[in-house]
Specification:
Number of helices: 5
Shape: globular
Helix content: 25-40%
Structural class: alpha/beta
Strand content: 15-25%
Number of strands: 4
Radius of gyration: 14 Å
Length: 109
Amino acid sequence: MYKIGVIGDHDTVLSFKSTGIDTFRAIDEVEASDILMKLARENYAVIFITEHLAEKIRDKIDFFRNKILPIITLIPSNRGTLGIGINDVRKSVEKAIGADIIFEREGRE
């Protein structure tokens, strides 16, 4: 059976605990990277990770971009958003359909 997990700072992952999602606290990019690789090996189909950690381990996240699983989704942390997550969604949608329907720019990167 596939699982869902979230990686981030204590306050951010705490809010996911009541949903039944497995939570993993990481205080730096080394911990976040180790946890990400562990979850990928342990049948986690969806992994949420805070943008603040994700920007520091972009190479590890990019490794999974062309794989079916796990799906890695960037979320804002308790410190707010960096805009990385929505930008990733925009790029994926634009790649899939050829138009930027989120920001309404056709065919531009």
